[in-house]
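hey so u asked for the seq, here:
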Amino acid sequence: MKIPTNQEEPGTNVNMAKKWLVRYSEIFLKSDPVRRQWERVLINNIRQLIPDLKIKSERGRIWITGNLDPEKLRHVFGIVSFSEVEHVPHDLPLETALIEYCRTHGLPGAKTFALRIKRVGKHSFSSNDKAIELGDVVRKAFPHLKVNLAVPDVEIHIEIRQDECYLYDKVIKGSGGLPLGVEGTLVALVSGGIDSPVAAWMMMKRGCRIVPIYVALDTFLDETVLARAERVVEVLRKYQPDIRLRVIHDTYLAAAKKELIRNRQEKYTCIFCKRRMYRIAQAVAQEIGAKGIVNGESLGQVASQTLDNLVVLSDAAEIPVYRPLIGFDKADAIAIARDIGTYEESTSKATGCKAVPKGPSTKAHLKEILEMEKNMEATKIPLPV
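ran it, structure tokens below
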């Protein structure tokens, strides 16, 4: 590649190898040892999702050569954006390559354009100087064009890295976040509704591998609810290829509800149910070495999620409970669900929980709940894990 060089006649048939330029952000801010480790994790995650690729990395950039579905790259956490690029061969003048690229990437039919230059390394020119120089070359080849740096019809990017040069016209947004797995594993309580898969996805985005569990409440939840949860987890597979829903059947709630009704304390049904689920999730976490539990609880959204009741629920677990949606409005969770693809399945037809009482408690007291559990026969039912 010659930078700069005398212009050759535009229109030359240019044979440029196609590549993908992958950008990450937060990884770049880490210390060198952590950055290198997380880069390797990110590359392994790309390979797991899209096999048979040639991949190399340099600080701040990952280069991919091979056939791939760009939609799949959008599902790899840690990627902030990516572009299909054309590499300018060393023996080809940049001006010639740029004009041919512009000819096949929308400039003939456009009215305005902009060149975006990014440089890495030492050069005899500045990015602004090169942009002016190449802009003049483009306008000479396409006299009808005008420069519009604010809102151009077509944007052409030129990335010069040391003595290499790449051209691209689109920047595709990725999922961002941290590479999946760099922060360890969490157990996710997944019901199949809108919130729990969104919460799981949010922790995936922060580098947590997720093990989703569904607690099947015998006599209170039917197969339609389980089927919905399975479909939702299948959507999450786009982001974590090895994800698998673990279904755990439990008879505790049926026995506990009978006792609550007999003692005229049915209003605490959801509290007892969720405390049981926390204990089941904790047992699974201890079994697999997970570092905590994640669920879709949002403050004040339903009766069991008041501040008073969340205190009672949190007491049931001896490991951290993460609630990434705690301050979200329902509309916020719905917007994310639509964006990540779980909304349609989460709102598909399924029966509700038949255990919910008509007047659930919104202000449970921990001391009272602990005393009730101590005196209940149902509490003696062993955890099903």
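The chain is about 35% helix and 20% strand. The first helix runs from residue 32 to 49.
lmk if thats what u needed
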